[in-house]
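tool=predict chain=A
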Amino acid sequence: MQSVLLRIYLKQNTTYQDKSVHEAVLELLRDSGVNGATLLRGIEGYGADGKIHTLKILNLSNDLPVVVEAVDSEGKIRALVPKLKEIVGKELMTMQTVEVL
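tool=predict ok
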């Protein structure tokens, strides 16, 4: 069975139905039986808007970049894409084939 890595790039303070988007994504992945997921918080980054979000003390942002990663079968992940798109909107999602060791 083919495994894939799903990566979703978000901003920390984006919300969906009164909760953070990353929390909504993690709950969907868990409730859908995805093997596991991890939330990673970045220290600096920018998205399509070009605005830099950083931890630097002089430019302290409270909207840091976060990435949700999950690995499971391609079929299981692809089945979740429509609901994930509803939750994350136009944020970037990528999927790539991975070898699970």
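The helical segments are 21-31, 74-88. The mean pLDDT is 90.
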